[in-house]
Amino acid sequence: MVGHPLHTYRDETAALLTRAPRGPAVMAELADLARRTVASSPIPAAHPVAVGVAISGLVDAAHGLCHVCANIPGWRDLPIGTGLATLLGVEVRVDDCACAQALAEERCGVARGARDFLFVNVGIGIGAALYIDGRLYHGPGGLAGELGHITVDEDGPACGCGNRGCAEALVGAPAIVRRARELLATHTYGSLITADVDGDSAPLRVEHLAASAAAGDKLAFRVLNEAGEHLGVAIAAALNLLGSPLVVLGGGVVGAGEPFLGAVQRTVRLRALPPVARQARIVPSVLDDHAAALGAGLAALDHYLSRVV
Ligand SMILES: [Zn+2]
Fold first, then answer.
1. Distance 125 CA to ligand 1 centre (A)
2. Is residue 168 within 8 Å of 155, Cβ to Cβ?
3. I want to staple 64 with a disulfide (CB 3.0 to 4.6 A). Which of 94, 234, 292, 304 is the partner?
4. For position 100, what pLDDT does the model report?
5. CA quadruple 175, 177, 179, 185: dihedral positive or negative?
């Protein structure tokens, strides 16, 4: 049944990165990964008709090209689609993780049946996808949807993209932890946070902040609230541009719950144009961390069916 994977297989991507960080060898590694996935399937005589790949980074889905991968420095302008298709002998669809997650949301998640929505994933970085008039909008060269690099604080911290004050530099998990450390260092607030703030034994994470905020910790609440407000500024700008009535939020930071999510919702209500704000629903994803893989598979299946039906 669509949306209910018959089989999942998880491999150690770290080994993949260290063995074949760049060049043609990475194609062979990825092809082997696909073959191992099929071989581990309990389905007798499983034979793939198409393969879907989701990559965290800048992807030209139309050409199966990975411009930049967030987690693998060597991946630049890598033709994943054609390279894998040659090795596997089936068609390969490549997209970025946020677009794949958005497709999964539209088919199996909280955006089921929606024609227009914005998907935003908040983890280490921010990924976003635009679903417009019943389909994903990638933009020329796949460059649309970089919500994480909208400036929300002109004098804010440096971002990995070279700009300052991008949403990602203020709302991504590393930015949230850094802000918490800054405030803890000032000793302005008493805090319930018990994680190892300066050491490595149990490094401070967003989950610690969420637990502390839920227990009444003002500092943790403030940090998560601030991050939610920053993201709300970026989303309000995007909604004013797109007029989308629905925003789906995914990713680990969204798991921080009300202090973060509530701040996003309030800030959009405050900052978006009134007619836009009135219709905007901002809801967390209900899909698990297989959503990107699920969406990539659905995109590959769509493409296959469009060719044979
Ligand atoms: Zn940036």
1. 10
2. no
3. 94
4. 97
5. negative
